[in-house]
């Protein structure tokens, strides 16, 4: 188990990078030539290490998109998050993270990530949960890969007829701490406006699975 002081260091450095990113990861394959797209890891560290063994570690010339659901269910969610955040620190131009529905502090309370933090870091569990909650809120919403011939959208959840990419690309994503709970209206003390409700539903489509 990595000492907590290094955990704090990784999280703070990665969060400072995530805060500078737009809502969409833009990837141009004319510069990178190829990219690996990795689905739900769900705390399975052995799977991630196997992927790296087959395809090589992330590097400037070996880029990856990790398409959400890094945590919960598996026993090594913290280790996966720390590896992915370290990869962003080392290679911010070739490692891309999309937010999934399990990068949600309400979901992690039910499916294991918070319990893992409690067990591995009992002396600083509250601080780490709060830090991860903030990191999750700063993860980009989706990725767009320019192949030179077409653009490929990579999103964890899905899209619907109500999607407005201009609105998605310009919204304040860190307002969405959890997709289970409605965000607070920008108009203090009032319910969400019609536009705020539409924005929330679009973010929900992108991050969670459609039912």
Automatic annotation (TrEMBL):
Reaction it catalyzes: O-phospho-L-threonyl-[protein] + H2O = L-threonyl-[protein] + phosphate
CC cofactor: Mn(2+)
Domain Serine/threonine specific protein phosphatases, residue spans: 98-103
EC number: 3.1.3.16
Keywords: Hydrolase, Manganese, Metal-binding
Official protein name in the record: Serine/threonine-protein phosphatase
Name of the top EC class for this enzyme: hydrolase
Highest taxon in the source lineage: Eukaryota
Annotated SMART domains: PP2Ac
GO MF: metal ion binding; protein serine/threonine phosphatase activity
Protein family (similarity comment): Belongs to the PPP phosphatase family.
